[in-house]
Amino acid sequence: MGSLRGLRLAAGNWLRLCERDASSSLRLTRHSDLKKNGFCTKPQESPKAPSHTYTHRVPLHKPTDWERKILVWSGRFKKEDEIPETVSFEMLDAAKNKLRVKISYIMIALTVAGCILMVIEGKKAVKRHESLTSLNLEKKARLREEAALKAKTE
Fold first, then answer.
1. pTM score, two decimals?
2. Cβ–Cβ < 8 Å for 44, 33
3. Which of 57, 98, 106, 139 could form a disulfide with 74 if both were Cys (CB 3.0 to 4.6 A apart)?
4. How far is Cα 93 from Cα 69, in angstroms, rounded to an integer?
5. Other C-beta atoms lying within 10 Å of the C-beta of residue 5
C-alpha cells in the first residue's frame, strides 16, 4: 500500500509540473487574447485581409516520350497529341500508379491462368500414368543398364 501511495504522489507532482510548463508556455505566446484558464477566445477584431496575395503555383514538368505513353496507357488522355506541353507531377504520379495497378492485375490473372494450366497438365499426366517417381525409376534403370553394358565391354 505504501508504494501505491508514493506512486500516486509522484504522478501528481509530475502532472503539476506539466501544467506549470504548459501554462508558462501559453503566457509566452504572441496572442494577447488568452484567458487565464488557458483556453483561446475568439479575437475581438476581425482580421484584416493581407495586403499581398500569395499565389501557389504547382511546378510543371515536360513529359518524355515514355511518360507520354504512360499517360495514354493509363487512360488520362486518348491520344499523345492531346497531351499538353507541360503536366503536373501529381498527374504524372497518378497515371503511373494507375498503370502499376493495371500491370499488377494482369500479373495476377497470368498467375491464376498458369496455375490452372499446370493443374490440367498434371491431370493429363496422371491419365498417361506419368509421375515423377515412375520417370525417376525408369531413368535409374536405364543408367544401370548402360553401366552394366559398359562394364561388360571393358
1. 0.49
2. yes
3. 98
4. 13
5. 9
